[in-house]
Amino acid sequence: MAGGLKTSPLGVTQTYRWSMGRNNGRLGSPWGMPYALDPCAKREPPMTEAKDMEAMLDSIGSSEPHEVGYIPVAVSARHVHLSRATIDRVFGKGYELRTRSPLAQHGQFSAEEKVSLIGPGGRMDGVRLIGPPREHDQVEISRSDAIRLGVDAPIRQSGDLEHTPRITVRGPRGSTAIDGVICALRHIHCNEQEAARLGVVDGQIVRVKLAGHARDVTFGDVVVRVAPPFSLQLHLDTDEANAAGVVSGDYGTLLLSQS
Length: 259
Ligand SMILES: [Zn+2]
Hints:
Layout: E1 4-7, E2 13-16, H1 19-23, H2 50-59, E3 66-76, E4 79-81, H3 84-91, E5 99-102, E6 109-118, E7 123-131, E8 138-140, H4 143-149, E9 155-156, E10 167-171, E11 174-178, E12 181-184, E13 187-190, H5 192-198, E14 205-210, E15 217-226, E16 233-237, H6 238-244, E17 251-256
Parallel strand pairs: 3-16, 4-7, 8-12, 9-12, 13-15
Antiparallel strand pairs: 1-2, 3-17, 4-8, 5-6, 6-7, 6-10, 10-11, 13-16, 14-15, 14-17
């Protein structure tokens, strides 16, 4: 695996990983495909040096956005949540999904099962299912995937599925057309204690800076989702992660503006 040491603009020495070397240039999933790591993988956050802390403290009270804490990144590759009825149609009546690995967000798991997605413009095989079954089908893809499949997937929060495009899902026992195709609005999961520590509330829109990966970028329009079972993570899709040069287990910095 290619790798080395790199000093970030904050003066923090981090292990630098070249994704092309690690992945042999293939794009893929934290849930089983070659590119990304296990989204549950834990790494230590970068150390905050004294001069960085001074700069953080200086920015508080000014009108500039200030840095309030590190957020671990988890990259979500394309995946599918299916309802019981759809699982019955494509895997057979009463089929039970098998757990491949648990996800950091409580109770969810990456399943062994995969399906094909067939849109008007193209097809994608080997798309991972996330369990357990949900009340509504939901297909989460990147904008690049949407272009390849020929569907105009809107950018939405999970569960906000009104007027979403249809796509055909094919499994070993059949295929069916479902709606619920979205590009997930980037978001931070956290529980109430973490939200209080960071000074954020459910539904708040924040910004996260991703620096130190040779493609510094600050993402706005990041929605905070606070619920008891969540653990602190910034969820990005593969387009977003690749644009910022980050992989699962890297860290972003939460930025809050003074009101
Ligand atoms: Zn999420």
